[in-house]
Amino acid sequence: xxxxxxxxxxxxxxxxxxxxxxxxxxxxxxxxxxxxxxxxxxxxxxxxxxxxxxxxxxxxxxxxxxxxxxxxxxxxxxxxxxxxxxxxxxxxxxxxxxxxxxxxxxxxxxxxxxxxxxxxxxxxxxxxxxxxxxxxxxxxxxxxxxxxxxxxxxxxxxxxxxxxxxxxxxxxxxxxxxxxxxxxxxxxxxxxxxxxxxxxxxxxxxxxxxxxxxxxxxxxxxxxxxxxxxxxxxxxxxxxxxxxxxxxxxxxxxxxxxxxxxxxxxxxxxxxxxxxxxxx
Length: 280
What we know:
about 280 residues, mainly alpha, about 0% strand
């Protein structure tokens, strides 16, 4: 049975599964035959594609699509997958991912992908999660919207709460009627994760920049230093940051009444290329 292309976000995986399906239909079908159809002289064509050593060309894409007897809608979807994979910038990837979502067949699978993307790429989703699970939450989305800095619309707050429930991140306790957090981890394909996380951190870094003027010094702690260190000390610093991060998470998990939601970010990144070793 041929795979349903609309359940894929990676065209390389789709091609591999399609080959397996065709191979099951007839033992005569081989990787060499697939390469011939794609116009490649290499019998290892599929292997190079799946191992990301080679990008599929436009000519090969259309030749394979015709051989697979894809419908026009399926061909366009495959083209979007290829454009998404080959995009060089985050903005391009995000653009093609939106096209993929819009072209997908309606169904629970599509909705799940959209929900995961929305949760992971919007900075205010974790804030909503913390606010609605506070004992002070009055059950009004408008209250949530007004307590977020910078404020969001009530509609976004309401949709955010609904999304958190849909993904199983929060649930309403039957006895108290209050929202509680679960231990659910949002798992999503790496293709969605990469673009959504980049989008999230870009937003967070922007909020950090605005926080310098938005909040008084006693309401924030923003500091940084530029230093030159050895590779050995770089790894030591990463270990120290990991220990500190674990301490932060342990403190956050202590039983307590939430009075305010904060974002804590640790950054360590290079500002120069690695210097050449002294040959003397």
